[in-house]
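[recover] target loaded
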């Protein structure tokens, strides 16, 4: 049994896309990795630790990012398909080397924690061994994640190309082997252009039988969409995934920019979710996320860094860009916080453990030090979202354990 800790701080807690709860000067008790109680300081007796100059937030959740692209972030080629061919695929090929895979995974997961991301949904390279290494490193560092071996069995460079059998066998074995709630495998067909019909159909059947999570990319770029039309001869990009059973309540589709109303309807009926990647979408000039239409359609979505088309693992930066990159709609701080935390925990069906600061949930906590001269107030959340650089991430707890402390 751990000793009970009492921490005095100012809590911001996501409730919904419209509502944040602000609880100034609270004492939060944590023990054995879990939040035991939250109460106003005035009601507390006994010792406490002083975090009054901090804001206390739940750990951030990154809904879509690529481990093997960690070292190529910021290497620019205009547009998705040339960027994949010239920057991404040669780098991912380097992950045949287990030493390189371990080196990158270590720095990647360390950086996530330093940025306050306490759970992430990750694409690994298209190799079994590199994916095993990613899991081992995550486990060693105490990182919480879903990690998927990226699947590509057609139209891919020789060095990355898998046989359909390899893709399926290792995906299923990884899913069986890594199945803890906070560290598990996710089926990861890269995107329709690099996946055979057979691969997608078998993945869809397996996912349905085992309720497995699936991640992929959908309608990111107009050239990509034209390619899918040419390759599959279906009504739409979404219809391809639908046909092979990849749209399930456990599917998370990255980007989702260029979608017709009938595609949105298909997604809504399937119960699938979107990972919104604002940094990446503008970096590659992929387009503007149809925020209002997706919200009106009632499709769940959350924020994601999409490294290396995203330029940073800092989720506060993704939040700010979500606002900046809507040309019509003003996205408010309450929604930004929600899309970084509770929205993603709900999509992952982990909201009984993660996503907000509530009694009984894990103590995955971020302490942001206020800038000199600032006093905590409700509007400080807005300042954190839009002027995040002014705040300093001082400490990160995962399940109550300190995993990061700044100097
Ligand atoms: N579509 C297929 N693969 C990728 C990838 O690695 N990154 C992005 N942004 N889009 C993709
Ligand atoms: Fe991506």
């Amino acid at each position: 049994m751990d000793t009970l800790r009492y921490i005095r701080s100012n809590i911001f807690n996501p409730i919904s896309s419209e509502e944040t709860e602000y609880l100034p000067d609270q004492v939060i008790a944590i023990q054995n990795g879990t939040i035991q109680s939250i109460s106003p300081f005035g009601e507390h007796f006994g010792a406490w630790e002083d975090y009054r100059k901090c804001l206390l937030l739940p750990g951030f959740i990154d809904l879509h990012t690529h481990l093997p692209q960690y070292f190529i972030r910021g290497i620019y080629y205009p547009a998705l398909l040339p960027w994949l061919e010239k920057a991404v695929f040669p780098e991912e090929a380097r992950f045949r080397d287990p030493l390189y895979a371990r080196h990158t995974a270590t720095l990647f997961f360390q950086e996530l924690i330093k940025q306050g991301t306490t759970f992430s949904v990750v694409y690994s390279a298209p190799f079994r061994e590199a994916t095993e290494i990613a899991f081992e490193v995550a486990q060693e560092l105490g990182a919480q994640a879903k990690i998927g071996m990226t699947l590509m069995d057609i139209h891919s460079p020789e060095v990355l190309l898998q046989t359909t059998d390899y893709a399926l066998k290792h995906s299923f074995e990884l899913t069986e082997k890594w199945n803890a709630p906070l560290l598990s495998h996710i089926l990861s067909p890269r995107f329709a252009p690099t996946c055979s019909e057979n691969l997608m159909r078998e993945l869809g059947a397996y996912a349905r039988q085992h309720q497995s999570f699936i991640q992929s990319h959908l309608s990111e770029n107009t050239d990509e969409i034209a390619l899918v039309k040419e390759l599959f001869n279906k009504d739409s990009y979404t219809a391809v995934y639908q046909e092979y059973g990849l749209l399930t309540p456990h599917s998370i589709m990255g980007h989702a920019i260029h979608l017709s109303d009938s595609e949105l309807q298909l997604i809504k009926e399937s119960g699938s979710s979107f990972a919104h990647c604002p940094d990446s979408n503008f970096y590659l000039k992929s387009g503007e996320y149809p925020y209002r239409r997706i919200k009106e359609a009632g499709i769940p979505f959350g924020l994601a860094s999409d490294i290396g088309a995203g330029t940073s693992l800092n989720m506060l930066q993704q939040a700010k860009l979500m606002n900046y990159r809507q040309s019509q709609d003003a996205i408010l701080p309450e929604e930004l916080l929600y899309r970084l935390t509770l929205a993603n925990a709900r999509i992952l069906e982990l909201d009984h453990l993660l996503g907000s600061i509530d009694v009984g949930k894990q103590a995955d906590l971020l302490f942001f030090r206020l800038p000199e001269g600032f006093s905590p107030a409700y509007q400080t959340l807005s300042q954190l979202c839009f002027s995040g650089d002014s705040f300093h991430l001082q400490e990160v707890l995962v399940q109550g354990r300190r995993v990061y402390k700044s100097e």
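[recover] notes: The chain has two domains: 5-59+355-405, 60-313.
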